[in-house]
Amino acid sequence: MAAAAEAAAGGGPGSQPAAQRRLRILSGHLQGSPASRAPEAERFLSPSQCRAGGAAERPVASTIPKKRQEILKWNGWGYNDSKFIFNKKGQAEFTGKRYRLSGMVLPVLKEWMEKTLGASLEHKITSRAFLNTSDVPPSIVNEEFLQDLRATKISYSQEAEDRVFRAHGHCLHEMFVLREGMFKRIPDIVIWPGCHDDVVKIVELACKHNLCIIPFGGGTSVSSALECPADERRTIVSLDTSQMNQILWIDEKNLTAHIEAGIIGQDLERQLGESGYCTGHEPDSMEFSSLGGWVATRASGMKKNIYGNIEDLVVHIKMVTPRGVIEKSCQVPRMSTGPDIHHFIMGSEGTLGVVTEVTIKIRPIPEYQKYGSVVFPNFERGVACLREIAKQRCAPASIRLVDNAQFQFGHALKPQVASIFTSFLDGLKKFYITKFKGFDPNELCVATLLFEGDREKVLQHEKQVYDIAAKFGGLAAGEDNGQRGYMLTFVIAYLRDLGLDYYVIGESFETSVPWDRVIDLCRNVKERIVRECKEKGVQFAPFSTCRVTQTYDAGACVYFYFAFNYRGISDPIHVYEQIETAAREEILANGGSLSHHHGVGKLRKQWMKESISDVGLGMLKSVKEYVDPNNIFGNRNLL
Amino acid sequence: MAAAGRSRLWAPMYSQKELTSKKRDEFEDILEERRQSSDLRYAMKCYTPVIYKGLSACKPSAIKDSVLQSEQVQYVIKQLSKEMGESTDIIQEEAIEILDEMGHNLHIGVIRFFAFSLNKIFKRLFQKVCVNEEGIQKLQQAIQEHPVVLLPSHRSYIDFLMLSYLLYTYDLALPVIAAGMDFLGMKIVGELLRRSGAFFMRRTFGGNRLYWAVFAEYVKTMLRNGYAPIEFFLEGTRSRTAKTLTPKFGLLSIVMEPFFKREVFDTYLVPISISYERILEESLYAYELLGVPKPKESTSGLLKARKILSDNFGSIHVYFGQPVSLRTLASGRIDRCPYRLVPRHLPQRLSEDIQEFVTDVAYKMELLQIENMVLSPWVLIASVLLQNLPAIDFELLVEKTLWLKGLTQAFGGFLEWPDNLCANKAVTSSLALHSNIVSLVNGQVVLNDVGMEDGATEELVFKQALSILMCGAYRNQLLNVFVRPSLVAVALQMTQSFRKEEIYSCFNFLRDIFSDEFIFFPGIALKDFEEGCFLLTKCDVIQVTPQEILVTEKGNSVAVFLAALFRPFMEGYQIISRYLSKETKEAFTEKQFILGIRNFAFQLLETGSTQCYEVLSSDLQKNALAAFVRLDVVKRMKTTNGFTYTVNKEAFNKTAEMFDSRIPIRKLVTARL
How many inter-chain contacts (A to B, CB under 8 Å) are there? Predict the structure, then answer.
């Protein structure tokens, strides 16, 4: 889903059952932090009368507490204890204990920031340390509604911190506002339903009192989807699903699990893992994002090649709308009953209702997991190889191709080498690839791989993939490089906060594109960013890079990062937005889609009509009109 | 253009107004250095041009292979094979033949040979070859950034030799050049040209889908690879009249396609203006225009042309214009890849939007060429002389030339007055350079061959026409700079009115009629009119009020001169319209029309009932016919062997009236101010 943190898997050799290892690390996040135990008490506060039957006799607490700010940053990405800093020696360091990189010194990061972005340690701006509650717009809630709400015994809060925390996602401009200003409009009240029935009650009350509901899951949106419409006059209710986080039952015969939609990715996988199962759905934001959020945005997971995207995983959805509850009457793999109603729900981005419960496919945890990487002489060869792998339908669980700039960025995040021997080995590898094989260090690019399954099959599969790669000039470059590649994904989200301290702003965006246009699109979009920066008066060359993150039969998903140093620009956010718009225009001009998995939100609404045609938009509008005529779900996303 | 209106709002506009304040680069004479060093050393110099994004050069044979294997060509081969029931192998063979016939074979040895011999030839033929070095620097920059398309003006065979020679001299990547197939007829030279980077295209191949596919893909492959700039002539052929010809769109749309498909980020279009003080083929062109067919290009013909080597052809000015980014031009107009819903290799008809865009770009580039065409003193002299036949006093000629110099500069013309020579000397040396056309007899400047009493009248007319057409080709160089104010002047004369509205409608009529003769940016008649008025106002020729346009007392002579400058065209079209309405019956072909009008005009000239020799120019005749077709008073119909034309008499007479009833009167109505 969002631009985001993926839990880095542990560092052991491939012989360990790797999936379990990954889960262990994820649960390590929980164990390691005393803060995360706090919500235990909280749990009993929430009414649990609706937890009837099912497997969930004993409610399990979420890793993320109700008071999110207790362990998560209020003005940046991720956990409070994890961040990049420059230590006293002026070296970059990643704090905390949660991740593989935690507590490590990154000796070359500073130089990379100086060289690539023109950042300098001398030019620093610090965000304010605390939220100034007096800036926060007051909570305006009608007393009659509050009385009705109290009668339901559903937990709620009107505190400023709770409301601000749910007023935003993780777009750059939202972070900027948190650091330096205040949102014009934020939710007036946060409500935590504990189960489906609670949601039904809340929606009924909202209809009765004419309120506006904005559902909130993990808060990792990067499409301005959570932003409150500034001109919304009604009371805005932030409906936080985080307390609906139970696995209600597991059906081992059909390999499905019925789960409340508020559960977040890491909890879901950990809890299923205790029974020996997984969903295999791992969006980069899985530490924080929720099942309901995945459904509402049409999420895509890193390992979709084996497990599929959310639309392939979902068997049944229950959603509460102002018209009532929508669901199918049976839990079947497929049915021909007109257009699939799930497809009105998936991607509806909170405009139609709240997803409360989902039945999702589960799989036994794979026996073996192995990372890998391949170096290609250039991006073109790399893309050709990915295309061939997709053609032969033998893509590993995950395969990603990063371009040269991102490859070099990966190197900037190398921790201090433990021994002379390792650094000698690194040097030798570099020599082999650049001198012996003649790869240009400024052209070469790397594909990172993740294999999963039976040990034997994985090894066989691995060979097949490496053989294809060899035909395109690819050289196997080791497990370690592969693993670091996947680590990059989560690190980059934390890194943005560091950049913001040094006048560097950055963002990511994605698209999907037919195979034959991948290379043209990547080149043109990167070039467009560089050109726009120059035209808009950005004084330093931007960091503009991409990777192919998913392969399909008919095309690929491409992910871009871009960052620039805004020193000398008076209105960086405006400049940034212009550049982002230009980049999206370029994507569309090159035959790419408006979004592969981030969704539309409010950020990309302007291109919806062109993307799905007038009639298409009209169809969606008429569904909205029927389901929610009074626009109770008034976040104004999508349409 | 039906869909003008809206989209043209974003059209890349042309503004002569801005031209008048524009600063142009300085010229350097490159022959000077050459004259002082060894030709051989020059030919063997270290030649390491920078290329696009440091791409490694690619062998011509590899390009041919990749063209042949391309999806585009393979697709057409399969289609044809399906339709004609032939095996794909046979069609593939055909494609290979086309490629071999067409493909260039750039070879550095040949380049050095050319460098050596061109050096010798140019030093002999020309006094100076002047280049704006700033333009070269910009080009060098452009070549490294994006694929580059060179768009030179086309006045002579020398054009592309000269360009390659210049690029070699400045250590720039040599272009591959789209040349007409006629060159292939020249045995050795054809091959030499091929090896110096020329590739050949048939003049017409609209119907042959395989040829089109192979050719288009060949051009695009070279462009996408970015390994050499592509060079071709927008005008399609050498302009025999030295007026810029209306653009051809085929090749331009091919080179724009990789950008439309976003196969390249951008493409630079570089307008290049090559101006000759004396055109090598001047007399050849005049003969051609009069209907004496042009000799087929042949090597022996070229050898015979050696005698011209002893002649002096003055200076050449080559102005490399600012590279124009296609992306910038397209921004706001063609924002989406038109191929989003079909595979990019499928042959696709260009959408109307794109066609219109290509048209606009073509005109824009030609106007940029015109803008940087250098005008020599002789151009001014010829213009004055043609209005003062049969003879003009030398002193008067100098005076009028100087006056015209001022006017030309005020209109934004790019005059190069040689080394601050005094007017007297400049005129004298120009007359000397063009002594084949004019002579100075007893203080009077006259056209050669005039006044010879012997010979049949027909021959006299012919000779007179020859001189006038040759002279006219130089005057023509002035016309595109003068056309806007001049047509306002003509309109003032024709309408005999002060009313702006009426004058504008007449201007619009003329602009439309003459849109094959002169280059107007499509769809901006009002702007052209305003610019014409602006320039005239600036020179105090007219005064413009919200409702009226008034000619000032002292501006009268200027207005008369401006109108007279275009008189040959006005009269020529009048004669042709008279011919069409009176002399033609039935349907006729273009050939019949040209023969007919030629005889008709000869009679008029012999009897002395007109002095408009330029009506004999086949160029003018064809343009007039095209104009009447455009006005819908002549119908053009396709038949099995070409086109036939019929005159719609009723409609025609109305248009003819527009011309005839308003025969320009020399005197203008001047307002008493």
Answer: 25
Which class for A635: exposed (0-12), middle (13-18), buried (19 or more C-beta within 10 A)? buried
Whether the predicted pLDDT of B498 surpasses 90: no
CA of B29 vs chain A CAs: smallest distance (Å) = 36
Chain A nearest-CA distance from B140, in A, is 19
Judging contacts by C-beta atoms under 8 Å, the chain B residues touching residue A589 are 262, 335-337
Identify residue B646 by its one-letter amino acid code. T
Q: Which of residues A304, A338, A364 is at a domain's end?
A: A364
- Can you give the pLDDT at residue B671? 46
Q: Say yes or no for a CB contact (<8 Å) between B339 and A591.
A: yes
Is residue A461 within 8 Å of residue A451, measured between CB atoms?
yes
Query: Which of A516, A523, A589 lies nearest to residue B343, judging by beta carbons?
Result: A516
Closest among A264, A556, A523, A580 to A405, alpha carbons compared: A523
Residue B628 has pLDDT above 70, yes or no: yes
Helix, strand or coil, per DSSP, at residue B105: coil
A217 part of a folded domain: no
The token pair at B110 is 């040949």
Structural domains in chain B, sorted by start: 27-43+60-372 (3.40.1130.10), 449-661 (no CATH)
Residue of A515, A527, A535 best to disrupt the B interface, most CBs of B under 10 A: A527
Per the structure, the complete domain to which residue A415 belongs is given by 371-590
Q: Do B262 and A528 touch (CB under 8 A)?
A: no
Q: Please, what's the b/e burial string for B223-247 (b: 16 or more CB within 10 A of its CB; e: otherwise)?
A: bbbbbbbbbbbbbbebbbbbbbbbb
Q: In the structure encoding, which two tokens stand for residue A271, read together? A: 């809890």
Counting the structural domains of chain A, the total is: 2
> pLDDT tens digits, residue range A593-603?
999 999 999 99
CB A59 within 8 A of CB A47: no
Please indicate, yes or no, whether residues A292 and A380 belong to a single structural domain of this protein.
no
Reported as a single tens digit per residue, the pLDDT across A11-63 is: 334 444 555 555 555 544 444 444 444 443 343 334 445 654 444 444 788 88
Secondary structure in 3-state letters for B181-199: HHHHHCHHHHHHHHHCCEE
Q: For chain B, which residues lie within 8 Å of any Cβ of chain A, measuring from their own Cβ?
A: 261-263, 265, 335-337, 339-340, 343-344
Q: Are residues A359 and A413 in the same domain?
A: no
**Residue B584 pLDDT greater than 60, yes or no:** yes
The distance of A525 to chain B (nearest Cα, Å) reads 9
Name the β-bridge partners of B375: B415
CATH of the domain at A357: 3.30.465.10
Q: Are strands B414-415 and B444-447 parallel, antiparallel or unpaired?
A: unpaired
Per-residue pLDDT reduced to its tens digit, B522-551: 989 999 999 999 999 999 999 999 889 989
Which structure tokens are listed for B89? Answer: 């192998």
pTM above 0.95, yes or no: no
A199-229: per-residue pLDDT in tens?
A: 999 999 999 999 999 999 999 999 999 999 9
Q: Which of A379, A442, A511, A520 to mutate to test the interface with B (most CBs of B within 10 A)?
A: A520
Residues A289/A217, Cβ–Cβ less than 8 Å: yes
Same domain flag for A450 and A579? yes
Q: Is A350 assigned to a binding site? A: yes
Angstrom distance (rounded) from CA A606 to CA A161? 31
Q: What is the CATH number of the domain that holds A517?
A: 3.30.300.330
Question: Tell me, what DSSP letter sits at residue B591?
Answer: H
> How far apart, in whole angstroms, are the C-alpha atoms of residue A567 and residue A548?
31
Residue A559 annotated in active site:
yes
User: Is ipTM > 0.95 here?
Assistant: no
Domain check: are A316 and A453 in the same one?
no
Catalytic residue among A559, A561, A566, A576: A559
Strand (E) or helix (H) holding B638? strand B634-639
Q: Best interface-test mutation with A: which of B340, B345, B348, B354 has the largest number of A CBs within 10 A?
A: B340
